[in-house]
Amino acid sequence: MAKRIPALQLRHELGNVLNSVHLLGEEYIVERNGKPLAALVPVDVALRREQARKRRLELMNARAPRSRMSDEAVSELVNREIHDLRRRRRKAPA
Fold this sequence. Notes:
Blueprint: E1 3-6, H1 7-24, E2 28-32, E3 35-40, H2 43-63, H3 71-91
Parallel strand pairs: 1-2
Antiparallel strand pairs: 2-3
């Protein structure tokens, strides 16, 4: 479970927080006014996530030629999902 830290506190404790991320593998959610702003995670975690994202993208691209949806339909679906996600984020309690 990631620890939460206000941005101002992080400013004053950056060295200690970076050490705990690097040496202890701790994760932090940086907040401003109680809202999540960024995450601090160990480099290996970030690299694994990036590799997983690339693998998923490669799988999607490999399957794309078999898709029966038109480019316009895909674009509309993606835009609708983005709109819905943004609406849910605005409504979500902090």
